[in-house]
Write a structure and sequence with these properties.
heterodimer, A: 356 residues, alpha+beta, Immunoglobulin-like, disordered C terminus, B: 606 residues, mainly alpha, Cytochrome C Oxidase, Chain A, two-stranded antiparallel sheet, two-stranded antiparallel ribbon, 19 helices, disordered N terminus
């Protein structure tokens, strides 16, 4: 009902606009084209001026409205640099924006048609053109210089003491892998992946280094405050992207081509809750590369904790291999498969195939 | 090929009579089909491109209204959506798969079908022969094919919207593996094949058109029309065509490899993939998903200049005519168009800063990308100086030309953020990008196109558009475009990712719901006003005020020396000779001096 009502109003609006438009055309013919033209020109000239004033007020107002909702304190060292770069760019482009927009709309208003004015024949001026080639070139050199200076710091090699965590994207969640006690990631091969057998990454169990690897799916990624963390990023299916808005970092997860990024978290999750005055605050991992129908809900969480908290947490985690052994133990011990299904969520068939 | 040979190579019905349109020359037997459907007259082909482009623009715009409904009102249902979309909007809420299909189609339609062929196809076809002084294109037959390939590709793309698995839904960039694997996404089944076939036909159309434009501009200028005397519209279209001819084939190669990966079991883009929904590891190894991105963006980036350069040309011409003043720095304008064309080929990887690209390579692309800001700045300052001390007539075309400059400044400056890889780390694939490219290439290019349509409508149809509706159209669109896209920068700075169906599960991004609703409402209003324009267009084609003088805007260029309703062949009798550049406005006390007027003995050279 309301849809029909809305459509009716729209149609009516169209009709009225059309009638007014037609009527004003007749009026203009009656009044004389020159006179109508001058009148319209004055109205449009004034509107340009009004648009300039309202526009600048609007820009200011928009900023007042939203400035507190953007960019909460950058939570990584890289983020601080990126924010600084961002503000340098905002200032330089902001000045250019305001000057050029004022000139544009002011000229439109000031030089609107008048019978008395004749346009100034001014086809070119080499000096002016050199000025506005050189000045932007210098400004941009400054921006490129700053940008690349930070870029090389951010994309350079991670420090020796960095904690390395592997993050793998899949439709539609994240899998995290810690290297375990030996601090070496075990070998893996994608054809070994078997969701049914809880081998989400296709680890090769014959490799000793793989046996203590801790693999977690969909949960929280734990990292340590003030300690560099290097993420080795993979994908199991399509391209995803590890987007970390609060750390200001982003890197694609490409199947078959591992990528890396590193950063140093500055505040623990608890500290950020206090800083942002938001008890629900979490460092979220958002997928920033279109990856399918549930792309918008591919959410992960990073917990930044102190070293002690991290050690405590890590001590409680079980290796992927151990989990599988445990799940299989009752299956081989008990006579009936019933017990096995009760003990784990793993489908019966895959346990029967396991045979160990 | 000279003009004469072209004229003689036309079907004989066209050859004699059209040079003298009142032609009582006997064989005046143009059928409906040769005149309106399989026409070889560049002016009719222009109208075909324009109207097809307008239909696509309405469809593409409507799609954006539909997905804005979802973004603005994620918690509400709209039963009428189910009436229209059936299973794709069960219970009145758009399904995620279809949301992504809408986003993909919106991008594909507007980037390619509206702002590439709708814009270039229309104005290249219309203005090249008329402004360089030619009877028609170098190959009218190829020109006709260009339109009909475009039409065929339109039919294929349109048909993909009605199949069971839905149209392609991997974004307008269609990155594999998502676009290669039907198991990974519903839209990557038949919809993706139709998308690829449609785009392949589109590339053919674009190449046929582009080669023709280049050939015509280089070979068929009238006597005296040296390259330094052609209007900036022609220069802009010339560079656009070169960009298209050199980059579209690369895109096509990328698509063909993708088709092989989809159907022939090759592994160009695929490696190490395990599909969770089918519990299957694919046999493909050794491919690189990044290869596609290189091939895609090698066109994809020039593509944005293919969109914006014609708009720049149209704006330069319309602005100069209505400021009654020469365009400032003609040679600098040509030089900056050239610089943009060259740089356009050297910056594609700035779309891939976070794809794992070598950081050193990234830094080269940062430098080259920010270099583009220099020619862009030259153009902006030249437009400003063109307005300075002019005598501005605010015709609807002129309003859109000024609006274009405002939009181009706003959108161009945010490009300096995104081109700097350091900042791109944070802003990549957020709403900041959405705001940036919609302002700088979407809205700006539309403004250029509108400026062109309002300015040349009298030449196309012999009638004027209604001014009152035009003014409403301009002011609502200008204000609306800023209201929609300006606040999006803030969402982007907060890190809000693009292509999200619903933000409510996110702690970091859910505090913009009110703003999203506001943007949705404004976009519906702006869309309604575009419909007003479409109405104005079709109404005025038939009922508009008639043009009574040959040169209603007092312009210098050659198209205004043709009859009010030029026939096939454009000029009655000889093609006029050209004696000067196109921009002698306000020179030595004269309001305008047409290009056909010989340079006086005492006249100062510009």
């Amino acid at each position: 009902m309301s849809t029909i009502f809305l459509l009716a109003i729209l149609l009516l609006g169209f009709l009225i606009t059309f009638q007014i438009a037609k009527a004003s055309e007749y009026v203009s013919v009656l009044k004389g084209e020159q006179k109508t033209f001058e009148q319209n020109n004055r109205i449009n000239g004034f509107l340009f001026f009004a648009f300039l004033v309202l526009g600048l007020v609007g820009v200011y107002w928009c900023n007042e409205l939203f400035k507190d909702r953007i960019l909460p304190d950058a939570a990584s060292e890289h983020g601080v640099k990126i924010d600084r770069m961002l503000y340098i760019t905002i200032i330089i482009t902001g000045i250019v924006f305001i000057i050029t927009q004022i000139l544009l709309f002011w000229f439109a208003y000031k030089y609107q048609y008048s019978e008395k004015r004749t346009a100034f024949y001014y086809p070119h001026n080499n000096r002016l053109e050199v000025i506005w080639t050189v000045v932007p070139a210098i400004a941009l050199t400054v921006l490129v210089g700053f940008g690349l200076y930070y870029w090389y710091q951010i994309t350079g090699d991670a420090p020796e003491n960095a904690q390395v965590v592997e993050v793998t994207g899949k439709q539609f969640n994240w899998i995290y892998r810690y290297a375990g006690k030996d601090k070496v990631f075990g070998k893996k091969y994608y054809r070994n992946i078997d969701d049914g057998k809880n081998n989400l990454l296709g680890l090769i169990w014959e490799d000793k280094a793989a046996q203590d690897d801790i693999v977690q799916s969909g949960g929280e990624l734990y990292v340590v405050q003030n300690k560099p963390v290097k993420l080795v990023i993979n994908s199991r299916d399509v391209i995803h992207d590890v987007g970390l808005a609060h750390f200001r970092m982003k890197m694609d997860a490409v199947p078959g081509t591992p990528t890396t990024m590193w950063f140093t978290p500055l505040y623990t999750s608890a500290e950020m809750k206090a800083k942002t005055n938001n008890p629900d605050f979490e460092y979220e991992i958002s997928c920033d590369q279109m990856c399918g129908k549930s792309h918008y809900s591919m959410r992960g969480v990073i917990k930044v904790v102190s070293q002690d908290e991290f050690n405590l947490w890590m001590a409680k985690q079980k290796a992927n291999y151990a989990q599988i052994q445990e799940a299989n133990a009752p299956a081989t011990g008990a006579d009936s498969t019933k017990a096995a299904t009760a003990a784990t969520d793993i489908p019966v068939r895959s346990i029967a195939l396991k045979g160990k | 090929m000279s003009n004469e040979t072209v004229i003689h190579s036309l079907p004989d019905t066209a050859s004699t009579h059209d040079i003298e349109p009142d032609g009582h020359h006997g064989h005046h037997k143009e059928s409906f089909i040769t005149k309106y459907i399989f026409s070889q007259d560049h002016k009719m082909i222009c109208k075909q491109f324009l109207i097809t482009g307008m239909i696509w623009a309405i469809i593409g715009g409507l799609f954006s209204v539909l997905f804005r409904l979802q973004l603005g009102y994620p918690d509400q249902t709209f039963p009428f959506l189910e009436d229209f979309l059936g299973k794709w909007a069960k219970g009145g809420r758009i399904e995620p798969e279809f949301y992504y299909a809408l986003v993909t189609m919106h991008g594909t339609i507007l980037v390619f079908f509206v702002l590439t062929q709708g814009l270039s196809g229309t104005f290249a076809n219309f203005l090249i022969p008329l402004q360089v002084g030619a009877r028609d294109m170098a190959s009218p037959f190829m020109n006709m094919l260009s339109y009909w390939f475009f039409f065929a590709s339109s039919v294929v793309l349109l048909s993909s919207m009605f199949i069971e698995t839905g149209p392609a839904s991997g974004g307008w960039t269609s990155y594999p593996p998502l676009s290669a694997l039907g198991d990974a996404s519903l839209g990557s089944n038949t919809g993706m094949d139709l998308w690829l076939i449609g785009m392949a036909l589109f590339v053919v159309s674009s190449l046929l058109g582009g080669l023709n434009y280049i050939a015509t501009i280089l070979n068929m200028r009238t006597k005296g029309m040296s390259m330094t005397r052609v209007p900036l519209t022609i220069w802009a279209i010339f560079f656009t065509a070169i960009l298209g001819v050199l980059s579209f084939p690369v895109l096509l190669s990328g698509f063909i490899l993708l088709l092989f990966d989809r159907h022939a079991g090759t592994s160009f883009y695929l490696s190490d993939i395990y599909i969770g929904s089918t519990f299957k590891a694919l046999p493909n190894e050794g491919g690189s998903a990044i290869l596609y991105q290189h091939l895609f963006w090698f066109l994809g980036h020039p593509e944005v200049y293919i969109i914006i350069l014609p708009a720049m040309g149209l704006v330069s011409e319309v602005m100069s005519v209505n400021a009654r003043k020469p365009i400032f720095g003609y040679m600098a304008m040509v030089g900056s168009l050239f610089a943009i064309t060259v740089l356009a080929f050297l910056v594609w990887a700035h779309h891939m800063f976070v794809s794992g690209l070598n950081p050193f390579l990234g830094s080269v692309f940062v430098l080259l990308t920010l270099l583009i800001a220099v020619p862009s700045a030259i153009k902006v300052f030249n437009w400003l100086t063109t307005l300075w001390r002019g005598n501005l007539r605010f015709t609807p075309g002129m309003l859109f030309a000024i609006g274009f400059v405002s939009m181009f400044i706003s959108g161009g400056l945010t490009g300096i953020f995104l081109g700097n890889s350091t900042i791109d780390l944070h802003l990549h694939d957020t709403y900041f990008v959405v705001a940036h490219f919609h302002i700088v290439m979407g809205v700006s290019a539309f403004f250029g196109m509108f400026a062109g349509i309002y300015h040349w409508f009298p030449k196309m149809f012999g009638r004027y558009l209604n001014n009152t509706m035009a003014y409403i159209h301009f002011w609502v669109t200008l204000a609306g475009a800023y209201l929609i896209f300006w606040p999006m920068h803030y969402e982007g700075l907060a890190g809000m990712p693009r292509r999200y169906y619903d933000f409510s599960p996110w702690v970091s991004f859910n505090n913009f719901q009110g703003l999203n609703r506001f943007i949705s409402i404004v976009s519906i209003i702006v869309f309604a006003v575009q419909l007003l324009f479409v109405f104005n267009f079709f109404y005025s084609v038939f009922k508009g005020r008639k043009v009574k003088t040959q040169n209603p805007w007092g312009a210098n260029t050659l198209e205004w020396t043709t009859p009010i309703n030029p026939g096939h062949g454009n000029w009655v009798g000889e093609i006029p000779e050209v004696h000067r550049w196109a921009y002698d406005y306000g020179k030595e006390g004269r309001e305008f001096v047409p290009q056909t007027e010989p340079v006086g003995a005492n006249e100062q050279k510009h």
